[in-house]
Amino acid sequence: MHAIEVQHVSKKFKQQSVLEDIHFTIETGEIVGIIGPSGTGKTTLIKLMLGMESLDTGRTKICDQLMPDFSVLGKVGYMAQSDALYGELTGKENLAFFGKLYGLKKEALQQRVDYVAQVTNLAKDLSKRVSSYSGGMKRRLSLAIALLPNPDILILDEPTVGVDPILRQGIWHELNDLRDQGKTIVVTTHAMDEALRCDKLVLLNHGRLIALGTAEEMTGKFNVPTIEEVFLAAGGEEE
Ligand SMILES: Nc1ncnc2c1ncn2[C@@H]1O[C@H](COP(=O)(O)OP(=O)(O)OP(=O)(O)O)[C@@H](O)[C@H]1O
């Protein structure tokens, strides 16, 4: 069974074609990076995977279940691109609120809150109101919320934007650990150094899948030294 299947997915917003016949699978226990320029359809693709947007053609499955399927969403931690947080509440109150929504009870909730606060380096800021958080702190709190239910699958839309390099490294270390525990992780990113940390890459350009595989496979196939150059080479080939 694949962790996630994207089968011949196309999507238009009005007359604008955003994704065209995207087809790939994601296996359990891998970190997959969805990479592409701004506006190329990464967030839309993630929303289609989760069943949050309607498809024009194709279908998506998570754990073999056709999406949308609420029973599957319990297994998925989703971090959206824009932070959906309660500014008037403290970080801890936000975590408690979302933890309860996930069905976590007292002791388990406390344990998870301690763990996610440590991973995202927010422990000392948890009693502050979120309205006083910086952009990076809000990103980290959103990541902490996605990690709360200890999901099998993590889908993270630009999780490290605005996060400083040291903590970024810490977060990637944690994502690697989670992958090693058998979790499946999907991240979107613009950062090429982050792309290199992924086990597999999905390269999108102008709403099309232009390359799929490991970074080494891609640079080897196009005979170029970097992923940036894969973009140029693959984009050029497409046109
Ligand atoms: N709900 C919507 N209605 C109309 N157009 C939309 C909608 N959502 C996205 N789009 C358009 O679809 C295209 C792809 O957007 P999307 O957010 O998926 O790109 P992205 O690759 O995630 O970009 P970024 O890296 O800047 O976040 C853009 O042109 C965007 O304006």
TrEMBL record:
Source domain of life: Bacteria
Record keywords: ATP-binding, Nucleotide-binding
MF terms in GO: ATP binding; ATP hydrolysis activity
Keyword presence, Nucleotide-binding: yes
Domain ABC transporter: 4-231
Keyword DNA-binding attributed: no
UniProt cross-references to Gene3D superfamilies, sorted A to Z: P-loop containing nucleotide triphosphate hydrolases
Cross-referenced Pfam families: ABC_tran
SMART domains assigned to the protein according to its UniProt record, in alphabetical order: AAA
Classification via PANTHER family: ABC TRANSPORTER G FAMILY MEMBER 20 ISOFORM X1 (PTHR43038:SF3), ATP-BINDING CASSETTE, SUB-FAMILY H, MEMBER 1 (PTHR43038)
Name listed for the protein in its UniProt record: ABC-2 type transport system ATP-binding protein
Organism of provenance: Trichococcus collinsii
Lineage of source species: Bacteria, Bacillati, Bacillota, Bacilli, Lactobacillales
